[in-house]
Amino acid sequence: MGATEDRADTARVEAFSDGVFAIAITLLVLELKPPTDSQGLWHGLAHEWPSFVAYLSSFLIIGIMWVNHHSMFRTIVRADRLLLFYNLLLLLWMSVLPFPTSLVSRHLGHTGGDASVAEAVYSINLTLAAIAFSLVWMHAVRGGRLIAAPMPPREERAAIIRFSAGTFVYAATIALAFASAIAALVVQFAVAAYYVFEQVGAGSSGGSST
Amino acid sequence: MGATEDRADTARVEAFSDGVFAIAITLLVLELKPPTDSQGLWHGLAHEWPSFVAYLSSFLIIGIMWVNHHSMFRTIVRADRLLLFYNLLLLLWMSVLPFPTSLVSRHLGHTGGDASVAEAVYSINLTLAAIAFSLVWMHAVRGGRLIAAPMPPREERAAIIRFSAGTFVYAATIALAFASAIAALVVQFAVAAYYVFEQVGAGSSGGSST
Amino acid sequence: MGATEDRADTARVEAFSDGVFAIAITLLVLELKPPTDSQGLWHGLAHEWPSFVAYLSSFLIIGIMWVNHHSMFRTIVRADRLLLFYNLLLLLWMSVLPFPTSLVSRHLGHTGGDASVAEAVYSINLTLAAIAFSLVWMHAVRGGRLIAAPMPPREERAAIIRFSAGTFVYAATIALAFASAIAALVVQFAVAAYYVFEQVGAGSSGGSST
Amino acid sequence: MGATEDRADTARVEAFSDGVFAIAITLLVLELKPPTDSQGLWHGLAHEWPSFVAYLSSFLIIGIMWVNHHSMFRTIVRADRLLLFYNLLLLLWMSVLPFPTSLVSRHLGHTGGDASVAEAVYSINLTLAAIAFSLVWMHAVRGGRLIAAPMPPREERAAIIRFSAGTFVYAATIALAFASAIAALVVQFAVAAYYVFEQVGAGSSGGSST
Fold first, then answer.
1. Whole-angstrom Cα distance, residue A63 to residue A69?
2. Nearest CA among D23, D17, D55 for reference residue D133
3. Region A146-150: what's the mean pLDDT?
4. Of A35, B78, D123, D179, most Cβ neighbours within 10 A?
5. Distance between CA D22 and CA D26 in Å, rounded?
């Protein structure tokens, strides 16, 4: 746990993570299947709307996670084994996301319990990803373990809360999925979109303050 | 919006973008399916010509987009959040391109409306990619925001027009697809080929003048 | 064999290897298929447990292999052709792992010989990967060939044994698979988990001592 | 054509190429399908031998091409647009290789013309890749255009021949495929294996002499 490694190492963690993010985000397209509708291609494509919504949502979420990962690793200047492991956990939940995305694609267009189950599985995946994200961040920031200089306690706590807020929203969408699968997806989409703009507007006061 | 980041950051944006371009261009091959024709393999392969045309066209277009992206980021020296977001939008349209490519593969060989619809969807994808490309470039260049030094206004305008010209041609192929799907594909192919040679011949006077 | 190359080269070997590890680990998700169970989605997902176990196991193993590869290349400072070749062999066994993973996914849930065969094939793959790993390491360490300074003979022998221990365990699971496929998978999982914690706890005394 | 770019650029060309090589080599596994043989899994796997041969052959060939690409770019120190284009052509033939690999997988196990056609298509792909490889190399080396210093004419000619020899062998296998598909595959395999050892043994006198 004490073994810290130098700058060159966070470079390779970032490179590997970039690879996994880039592949996961690009593999999503394999879930989009050409329609086999006999009423013409427009009609078939229109019926596939849940696939497009799920694709766009997952693309946006992985993209935002990448942007945040990138911000986070501007602050993290050293890597230890536990960081590698927590980061691997985060990559696990990013890599597997195309699977619940395909469940949502397939079931969101139908009424009934399966749409809720699919969306709940998707929400669980996002929640676990957000938890892994927080683990990486807390491990690095606590007591200035893997960052350039320890933050004042209040700032440290704020930094941790800032990066963990998404976890609670995603966890709430697990329950919401059973009330309305579409409402849960809309909330997830809104969270992702919020992060885009929050980051754009407040980038200078965020993790990238150095 | 004001938060600019240093050189190291455009390096990671470039690395992530390279990853997505490289994966999208390589995943195209998964749309090529072994023929199941009972009249022999040559015959089966010959009947698959629309797949090969669509593959080659998408490969060339993603490849050229990568070359241009690479030129563009030789001029862009800083990254802000909005740049990351516009770039993510560009990567979205690159990543999803294998899907309309598969629609074209499947329908171009048949006469009738579906070939036009498939080609129109393909054209819409290319147009949206070209728009995202222009957004990245305009955001970076305007007033010298993310480049080493502001360009003189006339040069700035010329640089923006240069990178946006493709947008209008791609937009025109949306309409053309309904007259003739093959004509639209030929025009797209020609635009890609033109960029290869334009770049080769005029590379020194382009964005890479620094 | 004598031709050594400078630091820049191990950088490109690492980059290529990172790419292959990242892609292999992310492609695993394509083996997870949406269930087509008529008794509802929960039921269908529950019946897919062997797929999830196999996915998690392979993800963890490739992830750990990557962490170890990363450690190993912090010690290796030069590359020669034979290193590139042994490393390519390692990447072969990493790249092909999704195939035996899919065999395990498909057969582990059923009793009978095929579950054992699938698990044995999986174990053979892991054993071959571990052997390739040892070849890379032994070739680099022997007489200080590709590392910064030769180790004392005793330390050299210890370093080789340390990295080769996994090979014998994986080889033993080939036989174990025929007694119990699930027991073999549990052992493999335990080895991977052990490496996570062994690395975390003893990272400072490991290959990364420089 | 005159526009040369600095070192940083060959870095990004190499990174993009590494990505495509890494993805193409890893996607090959998707052509390996779990057998659906009713006589047990061993039996089913044994019947899939053409898939394993084709997989191994393509993996080795892409791997060797990567090693050579890596050697080549140690000598090439500048990039111009035409180099990017020739390199893109090489990446095209690497990316598409999984398709003829799947044709060989499917037809090599059966006697008759289709095995020859499949193998001939595979040979054509390899020949085109070798030609693209030579184009990159000749363009860079001729008159010292993109290398550190011009070679003496005799050495330049030797360097070009060295990198082009494979082309003629691959071209010969197109014809050989019609006599015997398996013989053609054996020759291709032998060429790849030869390059492994030729490189290992003579690495110091090759392109990496600097």
1. 10
2. D17
3. 83
4. D123
5. 6
Q: Is B132 on the interface with A (CB under 8 A)?
A: no
β partners of residue B79: B5
Give the Cα separation of A119 and A97 in Å (integer): 12
Question: Residue A115 sits in which domain range?
Answer: 7-205
φ/ψ of residue B9, rounded to 5? -75, -40
Q: What is the pTM assigned to this prediction?
A: 0.86
- State the Cα torsion B77-B83-B84-B85 to the nearest 10°: -170
Q: Work out how many domains chain B is built from and give that number.
A: 1
Which of C58, C81, C108, C121 best probes binding to D when mutated, by most D CB atoms within 10 angstroms? Answer: C81
* Chains with at least 3 CB pairs less than 8 angstroms from chain C: A, D
Give the Cα separation of B17 and B10 in Å (integer): 10
- A87: amino acid identity, one letter: N
**What subunits make at least 3 CB pairs under 8 angstroms with A?**
B, C
Give a yes or no: residue D32 inside a domain: yes
**Torsion angle (degrees, nearest 10) of CA C142, C148, C154, C159:** -70
pLDDT reported for residue A10 = 82
pLDDT tens digit sequence for C47-99:
888 899 899 999 999 998 888 888 888 889 888 878 888 999 999 999 999 99
The reply to whether D2 falls in a domain is no
The three-class DSSP label of residue A1 is coil
Task: Give the model's pLDDT for residue B136.
Answer: 93
Taking the Cβ of residue C34 and every Cβ of chain A, the question of whether any pair is shorter than 8 Å is answered with: yes
In sequence order, the β-bridge partners of residue A147 are A76
Q: Is B190 domain-assigned?
A: yes
User: Which residues of chain A neighbour B90 with C-beta distances below 8 Å?
Assistant: none
On whether the CB atoms of residues D193 and D60 are closer than 8 A, the answer is yes
Nearest to D95 among B14, B59, B74 (CB): B59
| Residue D107 CB partners (closer than 8 Å, separation 6+) | B41, D50, D114, D115, D117, D118, D119, D181
B163–chain A nearest CA distance, Å? 24
The answer to whether the CB atoms of B26 and D20 lie below 8 A apart is yes
Q: Does D195 touch chain C (CB under 8 A)?
A: no
- Whether A2 maps to a domain, the answer reads no
Read off the tokens for B20.
């997505």
At residue D198, the pLDDT reads 63
Q: C170: which 2 tokens?
A: 């994986």
Tell me the residue type at A193: A
